[in-house]
Amino acid sequence: MTCHLGCPPTHHDRYRLPFSSYFVSFFNDAIPTRRQASETSNMSGFGEAAAAISLTVQLFSLSVDGLRAISRARHSTECILNFSIKLDLEIARLVLWGRNSGLTSGRLDPTLEPIRLLLASILGTLSSSIQNADELKGKYGIRLAEESKLHTPATNPPTYRTLETLDILAAPMISRELERQRELSQKIKSQTTMFQKTKWAVFDGVKAVRFVDDIKSYVDSLNQLLTESQKSTLDSETAAMRIAILGTNWAQPIKMLSTLEKATLGRYESIALPARLSRLRLELEMEEATPSLPGPEAIPEGALPLGYDQMQALNADMSLANFDNKTVLIEWRTLKPSEAAGETGRARMRQAVRLAGMFRELRSLPTDYLVLECFGYVDQRDHIPARLGIVFNIPPMPRVVTSPPTKPFNSLYEYLSLKDFEDFRPSLGARFDLARKIASGFLQFHQLGWLHKCIRSHNIAFFPESERLSIQSPHILGFAFSRPSETGISDRELPSNDLKLYQHPAYQGREGTGYKLVYDFYSIGLLLFEIGKWKPLDYYFRRLQTQGKSMSTKLFGSRLIELESDELEFRTGTHYKTAVLTCLRGDFEMEGEEPGEKQLKLAYFDKVVKSLDLCRA
């Protein structure tokens, strides 16, 4: 049973708490009246400062402190990392819930006042379970460290510093909220001192995971009680947390990504799959042996048996073919003669095998990544020119498979430029939706450290399900020139002037220049500009040339900003303009030295993806 991180568990009966019976009965037994709570506070030594804090806030603070203490429990390194990752994710979710409910600020959001007592009952149960040492020991296999018998060197706990490198609770938003929560803790010291001083040990890893499952159920239940607006904000903040976690610069990234994958597999696939793909990307980059994949179908055993007579070229980079009574799309990577033979040729083929394997892994989340289902790869190193291809399945649609196959899709560029589609102008709302999908789709690959390198409207494809044109279901093409890393996976493309329009000026004509994440962002900005104005870039380039203005592909982006930004804002609004100009200018307002890729991804999410989410027609 799986769930995306942060989503309400309405379809997970295993984790849903029976509100109608359990909490009503618990409320009568465990939640004190306001007078009782006040008396309890005074008796416990809270003092005037603590008395000013509501019971709900106190229970929230106690829960976070207790969980953080337990997440640092001692055990063998492998066990503690697995347990700590699982529990730290739930702590992070609880903290984000506290942020959206107002509790990390010390006061419940007014919209949640009608259910204050219900929230207190859930938090009361949670904090009570953490403080019950007998239950922790008997039910969950967690006991006080002095009771444990972890004496062997193999079970020495990893240092707190080691655990911090997982970057879950160190994610920017989480760490800020934890700091605010610590300030609350200082006001109720008598209750939190126990958590700060108590050391725990995990002596039964299986039982300990049950503890995490129960904590998850509480957090799921709390998330269900947020307003729709608060849930939307929570989803956005959870996405930012995932970007921060996956963007961590670990000293041993493959090992840590593997640990993260194991800890989240079957629990949070929105983290497990990117962790797995990031690991595979690194293994491909490092030219290691075939990655150790659990399933025999993850990487095809051999090249698909597609011959030349079965293919129809669409252009130098793509072909159509009939395979297994289906129409498939092949994206080619052309090899230099020196690359096609000998050990270099075999290395290039291994890279194609791994690349096909990575695309096959995406099948579990095809919507997020906007890619076609991958069938495998084709080896045509004996072709002139030599080439390797990745084979994608065309989505099922009402059509007849013909030989040779007919082109089954239209590109965004064709919609924008061909006379056949001049009467097709989607509504502004539909274009906003398309822009959001594309901006988020590319970010999914960027989370993996995977740069596309050839972002343009020619590589956004639509496979119509009927004769009616639509932009509802975009797919990203052009992976023949994508690169999980700068070296090895693909050569530098030699584009025409029309294609150079999409390239960052710093990358044009400089063979020795490494490709950077901001170059993809720049191309995304131009793509968003085309969607907003519903005109192709070459239209504006030709128009500037005919106006007698000094123009080159390197100057094009800056001139476009200068001459078209006001009109873009008039047509699409301030938020859309902000997203476009942020990409084109690289204006992510990052302080200090040149930001790392994780900071850039977070800034892109905040200033581009979230700005597009605010666009309304």
UniProtKB/TrEMBL annotation:
Residue span(s) of domain Prion-inhibition and propagation HeLo: 49-233
Stretch forming the signal peptide: none
Pfam families the record matches: DUF7580, HeLo
UniProt keyword terms in alphabetical order: Amyloid, Prion
The DUF7580 domain, residue ranges: 404-613
PANTHER family: HELO DOMAIN-CONTAINING PROTEIN-RELATED, PRION-INHIBITION AND PROPAGATION HELO DOMAIN-CONTAINING PROTEIN
Annotated protein name in UniProt: Prion-inhibition and propagation-domain-containing protein
Species: Lophiotrema nucula
